Amino acid sequence: MRQGDWTLSADVTGSPPILEAECTRCDGSSGAADEAKQPEVWCLRHANQTGHTGFR
């Protein structure tokens, strides 16, 4: 077995990043999306429905 240096980096040649929001108070999640709007709207609706205000 040989030892070597490895580096992780974003693949800028492929598709755009996948975005998802998660609630920090429950197991709720927006699901994966190609655009930021879907997770953002989900956060607002989730906060309105549950009162949860922490997201990542």
Write a short abstract of this structure.
This protein has about 55 residues and is an all-alpha fold. It is built from one helix and no strands. About 25% of the residues lie in helices and about 0% in strands.
- What is Rg? 17 Å
> What is the global morphology?
elongated
Helix/strand class: mainly alpha
Number of strands: 0
Notable traits:
56 residues; 1 helix; mainly alpha
Strands, helices and their partners?
Elements: H1 37-50
Describe this structure in words.
By secondary structure, the protein is mostly helical. Helices cover 25% and strands 0% of the residues. It has one helix and no strands.
